[in-house]
Amino acid sequence: MPAPRKTPRSAFNKTMTRELFRALESSEHENLTALVDAGADLSARDSDGRTPLMVAADNRSDDAVKILLQLGADINAVSTQEKMTALHYAAKNSDTDTLKELIAGKADLNIKDIKGLTPLHHAAIEGDDDNVDLLVAAGADVLAKDNLGRTAAKHADKKAADENHFMAERYHKIALNLSLREVAAQREIERKAAEDAERKAVEKDLDRISNGFDPDRFKLKPPRKK
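The chain above was modelled as a monomer; its predicted structure follows.
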């Protein structure tokens, strides 16, 4: 009797990977760890160019996101088509729980997708003031601009301009909040630039003095009183 044919390891791993995607799409999360231990590839892509972690985030499955991160999923992997990360999907879907998991996992807050949008842009576009505050508090760049030069505040302001929009008031609140933060961020940049310029000037003077230059020799004396 011939020995049973063994499935090649690579083929078996592909099967486990397909099962992993299927489990995520059907919200069957109890076997995620077993599937990965059996060979499922956490860096594999589905037909939309998403990794398992992105699929979990896009499906609002914060428990699956937590498990996949613990198993070593790349938190900052970018989808092949839209150039989005798991954090982009969470922000786009207004999924606060998943957003918190990814922020706690040290996700890059300022990666831009194919349109130049950061997760903060997506949160503002969705009119999600809680997630806007969450991302800003975590360190998201309020001055980041998309491919058309628009900040998150500009996107919210555009939405607020539509008075017939049922969330116009909320968008106005988000736009105002982000605009004020933009001003504060810009002032901080200018303050640091001024401090840096002053520091460099002092260092230059100290360097000239250490090389034998005496600044007092060139000071003008006040005119004599008549």
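Confidence is low (pLDDT under 50) at residues 1-7.
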